[in-house]
Inverse folding.
């Protein structure tokens, strides 16, 4: 059997270990693997002083490789590596996601740490080491994630991105400039030149697989950085405007149509009658190669190609913008759209004055799922279809989220999904679909789940939205994320209810019917600063930290950022999840089966109470009911008398006492608060969740 | 000219510097010498990451040696090194202390720092270096002290002390076991074996002298550690009891005499009639050598001599106790008294039942200034007399404080003082005399100043004691310390008024008539934890820090301790003193001359207002008055209209406006608040001090 890349990584760390004495710290949270107590000193700041080579070698050797099983290759997807038998009935390849707990991470941030305690996240610290994240550093987070019951590591984009006019200190990983190359900043320092970045990622995926965790990536086939590696050979894949008119470029405004309107066909005639739309589409130019092939061939191999094009052709790639009419967002200056078709959309062509004009970006050419040309840009499609297979071949990933998949030609989306499943029939796809009304489309397209709108619903406890979200998502044809925050939204810990809200939702989400528990990196330690202010942000959301915090005003998506891993409450959620994962495991079949679920209603029609019950058939009809009762109100306690008559009859459970398995507010104990056979007598503290078995 | 020891130290640091990368921090306060900005990183915690060899080398080379003057040897006292001309009139040798600003330091604490940030003050940190203080480390404090205007470094004991039954982590430096050896823990690590500890101290004294600062030590001729290096050759210099009765040893209680009574002769008859006194003195035994010379000679060279004596003779040295009758303090188990006379006190001998008994410790044998034998222990006296000369010869110190000098035979004290002044006619002596009523005795004995009771008076603003202390000390025959705290007392920053009180007194003390400004190490950064709880302590004084502070409950006098040098207000007092030292320098002659002083009274007889004026004769009668006006109340502002008519007539100053040179509450500005020629119109904020020149 071939050597694992992880073993090569371990060897590299051993080889590179030198005689330097390292005063190098990591958060104590990173040691959930019983690192030899003689090898570190714990500081007052909840950090451990370690030798980095030895520390990372130990997590690989002692925590990960020790769990390696014989005869498993680990370098394909987990299902392929373990020759998983795919269920024949009621199972779509990738449906393992339904039983998963997903941890969303941005590698460069989640595993960043000011190891030399200079106060800054250094590009080169006192030991000349970078302190931002890497796949190797992320290995030290795996024991913590394992403790929390995480089974899927979902990564924000890890591809090479453009640094042109970059936002923040580092630039956004969503401005992909080459989807097949990895972001070179993720290369680890400790391995020096003994490992390539690709090998390190491969080792990371192997490590996850050994720990029974799957790895998913985020792919972005609809947009691309305005400055990217494809221009050189494919200038015709992009939209162009005059460089000298760049400053005048703005999103066209269509009179007579409301704000942020989906560009359905009914509006398009009006769109094409708008003066401002013609002002806009008149800005577009033919691509430089088409304009002057001889000149193009002269410059196409130059180093600063964009600059050359600007100088010689007065051309620039046109920025992307929102796919909704009259959306107030300005153009997204760092990214552009791929030109999906070589011709104009057949649905709207008739509205256009003349087809003898350069291709342009407009709502219809953006929304390629709704508007299609007759000549697909086949070469581009093939390229986009191959993104996932390329990551499958090289790294053995298990799934992917498709960014803006809803704006891809449905044919192309179908190709992307089917091609990936040809390679790995158990490959999972998550739709970047926030609207639950589109769940059926996503299901039909072949996705395993959608993201959904948990992040806007769950925190709005007092509007009854948490209750509605948890209780009603059950009816959707696809599961969605059981989550209260994502990398684009405000943090739960900075919402109304703060840590209480955060804890309550993190517990509740482990048991949401038709929900896939989702933990946004940092959520587990009550991080308050959002990673991005893209969705549902409030005024000054980016200033959620105290002013004297070194990361005040910084956003992980653009800036060097480290989470507040050493705060005093850092162990609360991980310790809680350590308990909950055992309860979840025992009840996993029922938790992921609609038919085993029964809602529990409070006596007073409370909008803030959430009651969930799962039941199973057992011979004795004992210990066959699991109750999850939550008080969504983070400020006030509540006394309730929920009726369980229906549950009694469905489950045949007749127990008069049970066990309080878990509470956010107290320890486990016997549960005897049953007034009469069919009525519970429940006290829930502010934001309390109680889990009871009968 | 011979090479300075400081130059050898610099060379040692250069030689020992290695290629290790040091993640080693020092408080930013230690860089008051413009350390090369390219060589350090400032952390968020107000520390600098430096290479220790380079950092200490830089302070020596760039800040200290650069100020070295040609033709000065620096290794004698400053007066001798610079051939200072001693004034003939109104000057006692050592009277330079009257113009000084004294900084009291315990080297092992003041220069301690958790350099590797392990959270603990390590005996061996990650680089195997100790983190407690040393003379070499203390060099980095000198630029800060210089900034604050300090001219005298006064050190708590630096001699070798006993570790037997030590208090705290480290033991007390007051339990001296060998007064001529230095505490070996003060040896620096960076110099390795290229320097001896004595050489390092010598280099430190030279450094102070180059910076025009004098060095004073604390000598302890009255007591000694119960376990010490003198026993071997001089068992007869000590008092002995039966080891097997050690647990019964307690201070005798004399019925019919009040608590804590000075043992004047009138009481001694009663003392010697007390049953409990006889219980006590009956415990004493002859010294082991006298008991069995043959056996003594057999064991005297053994390694654990005390243990041997205990085993073979059943003897132990008797602990010391308070020199007051019926003082509730238990015996001081770590120290004992020297036996000053070979016979019993002639004043009390008649009260004793028989002189045919072993020597014992009692109030009269303790108070050797009041009770004298006829046979002085000459060999011992010679030894004690030579302590100071030995430090003069070896290190060139400038002065000394004598601990419990008031309990020495006056003859012996006279010998100590005169012998030191034979070597250095400008040598200064400070009496450990807290009672101002004894100032005349101290003056007569040859001291230059007493400590006084500032620390109990100054913080008691509302009882009017601050006012009385500042205004009345003027009449004493000797100056005393202008201070609000010492190493034995609570910290100003933890008293009522806290930082406001601390700031106000630190300013005021720079201008107190007949006061010598005294800064207790840590005071300059608002340290709250006392170094010892010996004097004026309140309940739980030793718990002045927050419970989660790593030094909670620790006392610098016994434990590993580092000051909170990195707190956010750390620069306030040093910056203030940097300004004040210039004003003080300009007015130093008047400040130290009683005849130039005139008190300023408030209109309302306020107990909390302090008004000081100094004036001089000038040709123009302008700019010849300095006013220091302080509101001692740290909570409330005050409006006052002090009358300056008398000052006008004494100074001939007729100015109608002046300058506000300094205020604790505002910046400098013109001063025009004069209602009519003779009345000021003053607003003072809570705890404000204003300094005005007219």
């Amino acid at each position: 059997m071939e050597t694992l890349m992880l073993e090569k990584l371990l060897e590299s760390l051993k080889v590179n270990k030198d005689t330097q004495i390292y005063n190098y710290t990591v958060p104590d949270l990173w040691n959930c693997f019983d690192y030899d107590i003689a090898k570190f000193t714990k500081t007052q700041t909840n950090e451990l002083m370690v030798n980095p080579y030895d520390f990372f070698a130990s997590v690989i050797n002692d925590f990960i490789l020790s769990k390696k099983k014989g005869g498993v290759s680990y370098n394909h997807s987990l299902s392929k590596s373990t020759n998983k038998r795919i269920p024949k009935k009621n199972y779509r390849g990738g449906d393992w996601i339904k039983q998963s707990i997903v941890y969303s991470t941005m590698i460069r941030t989640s595993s960043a740490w000011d190891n030399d305690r200079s106060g800054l996240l250094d590009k080169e610290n006192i030991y000349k080491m970078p302190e931002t994240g890497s796949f190797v550093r992320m290995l030290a987070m795996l024991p913590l994630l394992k403790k929390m019951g995480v089974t899927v590591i979902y990564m924000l984009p890890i591809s090479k991105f453009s640094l042109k006019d970059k936002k923040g200190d580092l630039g956004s990983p969503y401005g992909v400039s080459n989807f097949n190359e990895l972001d070179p900043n993720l290369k680890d320092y400790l391995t020096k030149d003994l490992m390539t970045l690709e090998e390190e990622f491969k080792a990371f995926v192997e490590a996850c697989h050994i720990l029974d965790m799957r790895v998913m990536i985020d792919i972005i086939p609809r947009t691309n950085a305005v400055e990217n590696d494809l221009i050189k050979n494919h200038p015709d894949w992009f939209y162009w405007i005059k460089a000298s008119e760049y400053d005048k470029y703005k999103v066209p405004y269509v009179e007579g149509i409301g704000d942020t309107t989906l560009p359905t066909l009914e509006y398009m005639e009006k769109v094409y009658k708008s003066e401002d739309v013609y002002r806009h589409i008149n800005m577009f130019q033919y691509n430089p190669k088409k304009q002057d092939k001889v000149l193009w061939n002269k410059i196409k191999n130059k180093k600063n190609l964009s600059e050359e094009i600007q100088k010689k052709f007065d051309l620039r790639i046109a920025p992307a913008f929102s796919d909704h009419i009259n959306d107030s967002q300005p153009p997204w200056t760092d990214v552009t759209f791929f030109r999906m078709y070589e011709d104009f959309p057949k649905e709207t062509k008739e509205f256009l004055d003349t087809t003898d004009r350069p291709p342009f970006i407009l709502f219809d050419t953006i929304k390629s799922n709704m508007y299609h040309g007759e000549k697909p840009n086949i070469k581009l499609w093939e390229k986009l279809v191959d993104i996932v297979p390329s990551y499958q071949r090289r790294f053995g990933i298990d799934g992917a989220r498709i960014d803006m998949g809803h704006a891809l030609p449905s044919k192309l989306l179908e190709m992307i999904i089917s091609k990936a499943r040809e390679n790995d029939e158990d490959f999972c796809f998550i739709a970047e679909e926030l609207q639950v009304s589109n769940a059926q489309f996503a299901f039909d397209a072949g996705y395993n789940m959608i993201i959904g709108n948990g992040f806007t619903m769950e925190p709005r406890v007092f509007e009854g939205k948490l209750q509605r979200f948890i209780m009603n998502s059950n009816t959707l044809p696809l599961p969605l994320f059981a989550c209260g925050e994502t990398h684009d939204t405000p943090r739960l810990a900075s919402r109304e209810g703060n840590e209480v809200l955060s804890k309550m939702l993190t517990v509740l989400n482990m048991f949401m019917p038709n929900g896939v528990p989702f933990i946004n990196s940092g959520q587990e330690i009550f991080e308050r600063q959002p990673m991005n202010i893209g969705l549902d942000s409030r005024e000054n959301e980016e200033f959620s930290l105290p002013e004297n915090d070194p990361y005040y005003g910084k956003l992980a998506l653009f800036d060097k950022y480290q989470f507040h891993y050493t705060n005093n409450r850092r162990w609360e959620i991980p310790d809680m999840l350590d308990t909950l994962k055992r309860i979840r495991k025992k009840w996993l079949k029922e938790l992921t089966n609609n038919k085993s679920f029964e809602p529990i209603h409070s006596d007073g029609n409370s909008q803030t109470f959430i009651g969930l019950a799962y039941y199973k058939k057992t011979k004795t009809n004992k210990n066959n009911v699991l109750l999850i009762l939550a008080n969504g109100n983070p400020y006030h306690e509540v006394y309730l008398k929920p009726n369980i008559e229906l549950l009694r009859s469905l489950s045949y459970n007749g127990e008069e006492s049970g066990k309080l398995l878990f509470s956010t507010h107290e320890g486990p104990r016997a549960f005897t608060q049953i007034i009469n056979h069919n009525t519970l007598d429940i006290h829930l503290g502010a934001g309390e969740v109680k889990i009871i078995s009968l």
